[in-house]
């Protein structure tokens, strides 16, 4: 009976991952998993966690619903990992209450705008090898970025060579519109496709007319080659 009583009294939702340390910070639970050689986000993070530090690990991906059961989370630190992919629903379930999200110092080249625009958290996206594109521009304009880290969001690759190596904010302040670049590229592709179809139609019409003309000429030659009717005797 004492054993079963002990089982009932254990706060299973507040257990701490083996590779982490759980402590209290200002009366709220903090889960500290920094520099623990983690390759993925632990699944057994306590449901009452408010602060979560996963920095300086080897995490490569943030999958969908990675934090869905952690409705009390206010701060997530994922800086200095090896993150390359972030799923669209990566922060589903915590978007409303999250106040701070640090993704700096990773290997992120692009990110679905849906993953971040629903967040009300202050974002840190600096020191990633960003490909400057329309989705990143929309994140920069609409998301709540940490003002101290905005200048460190640099274009590692870009649609135009002159943007490479420059802070994205500087590129946009100079009047560039990455969404416009994408639109112009789409327009050019559509124009080329339509021109190709038009050329094919014209070529078909020309071949058709030429073929009919050759058949008509051939028919005339055959008629002329027939022996003429013998004239009636006088």
Automatic annotation (TrEMBL):
Residues 15-51 form the LRRNT domain. One of its GO terms (cellular component) is plasma membrane. The keyword Membrane applies. InterPro entries: Leu-rich_rpt, Leu-rich_rpt_typical-subtyp, LRR_dom_sf, LRR_TM_domain-containing, LRRNT. Residues 1-22 form the signal peptide. It is a single-pass membrane protein. PROSITE patterns: LRR (PS51450). The chain crosses the membrane at residues 188-209. The keyword Signal applies. Its main location: membrane. Keywords: Leucine-rich repeat, Membrane, Repeat, Signal, Transmembrane, Transmembrane helix. This is Leucine-rich repeat-containing protein 3. The lineage of its organism: Eukaryota, Metazoa, Chordata, Craniata, Vertebrata. The gene is Lrrc3.
